[in-house]
């Protein structure tokens, strides 16, 4: 039924088609029409919905550019500006430059290529041209600085949800910031922030999703994968559209101080909980067993002395003993 609705929208791409017209033509209720339209939006189709007019398929091309990005972001109040770049050092660095120039706006930066893509703790993120979705959200949530780092979990859940909605892949989440498909990393998230003791200025949420790479540099060939390598071809635009919808839902819960659904999502997809891991800090590496993810997004582990210990995401790297 969804594909029949899509066909109708494509046939009427010049104008709006009302819910009533669609329900009459396909013999289904208007509620069913609305549900299928929502599912299509979840899959990345950009459909404008206007009261008293109906639905219009805004963009049927899979190309991500300034105008398709603008259409995609219209619905989200946490995106007040967009910037689409051909190349940049790092979308996170660009977001921070913008944040310093102006003090209010929130927005989204996407680049076809990054020449100095960054991972956590000074590591490098391979970001070849047109091979992935390289993006950063500049956000100014009204939360305390100590709540800021759990936004990494919000975006990991939203991107896992988006990839699963657009593909048939099962996505695992390696706490707190990596998405894993068939034992390999397909997406990484780097959260940076500017804050004083009592005041958060901004958060930059950088997300990289591997889309079309068929090979990787030799040092990561065993641990990295892309959607294409996993046999799926999906555009960055579809993934981004599905991500924004899922993120906006989880983000509003986070802003209300409710992490329960986000934590449940993590627990259901976690490749970390119930595993032996190494906790790597700048001064030491030690073994631990992961018991749970706490309500605030921190990790509960049992250390080598048999004691329970809480691990916060900003401080450490957690590495599985047998792969991710
Ligand atoms: P991370 O520190 O958890 O992961 C970085 C590690 O992952 C690297 O040391 C390497 O082993 C491996 N790696 C490097 N590139 C890739 C890749 N393309 N796919 C899979 N594995 C890789 C994860 O850090 C956070 C990455 C965030 C990337 C986004 S892209 C948009 C934004 N801008 C920016 O500079 N960074 C973020």
Automatic annotation (TrEMBL):
CDD domains: BPL (cd16442), HTH_ARSR (cd00090)
Catalytic activity entry: biotin + L-lysyl-[protein] + ATP = N(6)-biotinyl-L-lysyl-[protein] + AMP + diphosphate + H(+)
PROSITE patterns: BPL_LPL_CATALYTIC
Documented EC number(s): 6.3.4.15
Binding positions for biotin per the UniProt entry: 90-92, 114, 185
Cytoplasm as UniProt keyword: no
Pfam families, alphabetized: BPL_LplA_LipB (PF03099), HTH_11 (PF08279)
Principal EC category: ligase
Domain BPL/LPL catalytic: 77-255
SUPFAM superfamilies associated with the record: C-terminal domain of transcriptional repressors, Class II aaRS and biotin synthetases, Winged helix' DNA-binding domain
Listed GO MF terms: biotin--[biotin carboxyl-carrier protein] ligase activity
Record keywords, A-Z: ATP-binding, Biotin, DNA-binding, Ligase, Nucleotide-binding, Repressor, Transcription, Transcription regulation
DNA-binding span(s): 19-38
Domain of life: Bacteria
Family: Belongs to the biotin--protein ligase family.
Function: Acts both as a biotin--[acetyl-CoA-carboxylase] ligase and a repressor.
PANTHER family: BIOTIN PROTEIN LIGASE, BIOTIN--PROTEIN LIGASE
Protein name: Bifunctional ligase/repressor BirA
Source species of the chain: Fusibacter bizertensis
């Amino acid at each position: 039924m969804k594909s029949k609705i899509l066909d109708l929208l494509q046939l009427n791409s010049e104008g709006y088609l009302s819910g009533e017209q669609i329900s009459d033509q396909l013999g289904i209720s208007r509620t069913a029409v609305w549900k299928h339209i929502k599912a299509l939006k979840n899959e990345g189709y950009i459909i404008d919905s206007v009261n008293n007019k109906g639905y219009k398929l805004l963009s049927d091309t899979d190309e991500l550019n300034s105008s398709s990005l603008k259409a995609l972001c219209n619905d989200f109040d946490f995106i007040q500006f967009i910037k689409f770049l051909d190349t940049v050092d790092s979308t996170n660095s660009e977001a921070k430059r913008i944040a310093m120039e102006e003090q209010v706006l929130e927005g989204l930066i996407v680049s076809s290529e990054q020449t100095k893509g960054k991972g956590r703790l000074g590591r490098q993120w391979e970001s070849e041209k047109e091979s992935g979705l390289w993006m950063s959200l500049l956000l100014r949530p009204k939360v305390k600085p100590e709540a800021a780092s759990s936004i990494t979990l919000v975006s990991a859940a939203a991107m896992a949800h988006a990839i699963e909605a657009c593909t048939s892949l099962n996505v695992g989440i390696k706490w707190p910031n990596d998405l894993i498909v068939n034992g390999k990393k397909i997406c990484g998230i780097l959260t940076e922030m500017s804050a004083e003791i009592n005041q958060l200025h901004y958060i930059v949420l950088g997300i990289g999703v591997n889309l079309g790479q068929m090979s990787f540099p030799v040092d990561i060939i065993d641990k990295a994968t892309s959607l294409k390598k996993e046999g799926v071809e999906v555009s960055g635009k579809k993934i981004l559209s599905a991500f924004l919808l899922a993120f906006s839902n989880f983000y509003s819960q986070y802003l209300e101080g409710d992490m329960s659904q986000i934590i449940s999502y993590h627990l259901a997809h976690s490749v970390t909980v119930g595993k032996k891991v190494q906790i790597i800090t700048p001064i030491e590496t030690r073994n631990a067993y992961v018991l749970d993810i706490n309500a605030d997004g921190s990790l509960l582990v049992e250390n080598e002395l048999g004691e329970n210990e809480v691990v916060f995401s900003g401080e450490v790297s957690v590495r599985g003993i047998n792969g991710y």
